[in-house]
Amino acid sequence: MKKILFFPLLRMPSGHHQVADTIAGYLQRRDSTILCKKIDLMSAWNPTVERIVTNTYLEWIHYFPRNYAWVYKHMANKSNTGRSYKYYDFLFMKKMKQIIAEEKPDLIVCTHGFPSYFLSQLKSKHQCPIPVINVYTDFFINDVWGREGIDYHFVPSQAVKNNLMNRNGIPDNQIIVTGIPTDEQFEKQLTPLEATSKIKVLVSGGSVGLGNIAELLKQQSNESEVEYFVLCGKNKKLYQKIENLHYQNIHPLPYISSREKMNELYSNVDAIITKPGGVTISEALKKGQPIFIHSALPGQEEINLKLLKELNLVQILKENLSLDDQVMNYFKDETVKDQFQASLQAYLREIKGGSPNEIATFIQDVIDFNREDALKGSARKIN
Question: 144 and 283: one domain?
Answer without folding.
Answer: no
